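Per reviewer request, we include the raw input and output of the structure prediction for the construct analysed in the revised manuscript.
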Amino acid sequence: MRAAPILVIKLGALGDIVLATGPFAAIRAHHPGAPITLLTTKPYAAWLGSAPYFDDVWIDPRPSALDVSGWLRLRRQLRGGGFGRVYDLQTSGRSSRYFWLMRPTPPDWSGIAPGCSLPDADPNRNHLHTVERQAGQLRAAGIAEVPPPNLDWCDADLSGFTLPARFALLVPGGSAHRPEKRWPALAYAALARRLLERGLTPLLIGTGAEARVLTEIEAQAPGVVSLLGQTDFPSLCALARRAELAVGNDTGPMHLIATAGCRSVVLFSSASDPALTAPRGRAVTILREARLEDLSVDQAIEGLC
């Protein structure tokens, strides 16, 4: 008989998606014969569609509170999936509301929605790192073994890039509404000059929203190479495997880089807690100052040693 379909909910953000790749693999291994659908958001749909964990990927329409027709369409879609079990790895207020859309006869549900059949009832869950918290959630649902985050499946052809023989990745950007999570551009420029002295060419990683900070670093550190707007998730993983090291703020791309295997130094301020959200990888160093402008270039260099 065909196994009942499985739904996995993971909407974002990028760092959380990367940290969830271990649970994705564990769910796939636990349900080898079941079709598994992922419900995620548009920025991650195509990328995660290439992962070995899912048979289908749905994009969450994220209806607003007053969008009654949108909620009704989402309810029809969720109920029409015929899911035998749902793993809500988002465990947010929004994703928990999706449990109520599937009442009065919801499937087995792993999450924190009141009344769900497979609750993560650990009272300490909000004080655990995401990796340990989700492993505990899956144990409560009967999945004993959860591997660490893994991006071995994510790769790209780098022949379109002109890469120096030796290079490092610098990730000086981050959420525009969280400037307190960014090390100053002048500090990145000073670090870039130090790396150039060591024979390492810094490659600057960022999107169009981070053009200003990358341009400032370029002006202050001649010899750096800007890849502004030129990388996607697969190419960033491929670059990480070629790079000798990476330094960046507490932002999604650093999760990709660290988990892909690059030796990484990740900079945290008091705005976020590495005990809960730090990237995971083979060689990750966390440097933290309450105010990132108080973190010296010498401290960053020492973190690379």
